[in-house]
Amino acid sequence: MRYSILKIVLYSFLLMCNSYSQFYADSVISEPVIEFLKIADEEAKLLKETNSHEITREFSDSEIEDIARLYYKVFNEDPVGYNIYLEKLHKKWELNRNSLELKPAMKLHLLVKKIAEKYGIPFTEIIGTPAFLRCKYMNLELSNYKIIDGSNNLNMKAHTFNFVVEDILKGHKFFKTGDTIAIMMIGGVESPLPVLSGGNIYFIPLGTLSGLGKDGFNIKFQSLKDKYDVWKMGEPPRVFPIENETIKNCEYFGFPEMDWNKFKVYFKEKFLIFK
Description:
This protein is of the alpha+beta class.
């Protein structure tokens, strides 16, 4: 039985809650979602006219700031609506895939790269991450998980990491302190598991993945890329340990470690600048 690496990796980052996905909230495909994808589509039309594969036109500082603010709102308010709308656009693209039109996801990727040109990749990844939570890791559960693809199916070993939310720096709309989160990953060579210790505290970034699970969407570890145009495999998701109220291994945020309370102020002032 043959499966593409893409499918294996897709399922490798599956994250599910005990009873529902908190990210669902009151998703209605919000105005920021529609507007951001509209801008990406308009920029892609210009690329088609110039036969280019990159957005080369220069945005003014105010233009790119407005686009970045919109990008922040998309994931701060309605990440599930973003996935639902993107999936609808992709299905529409599939019906006319012989055309030279870019995939909707590629249109978005090119626009996100323009944001990163001004603000840097870490900043862009962070504002595009729906939630950052301080969590206590409880335990690991092992189970079997079946991937069904048409007439084929594959049995794999599932690893479920159970957390309790202690603090929320981003994602207040979707989570509250005391929530339990069960993160299920199908580990493998392409997607190794994070190394966690029971009872320890971690700062974890969370995103949402559509098309899977009982409700058609799930939450997942957010990868937090440090490069674009490179698909890295073989690296576990980023999680940041908190020991003795000090958050460690934080080079991604711009420093090696920091007192947790100071980090909370730093994180909000540096990354949560859009309202």
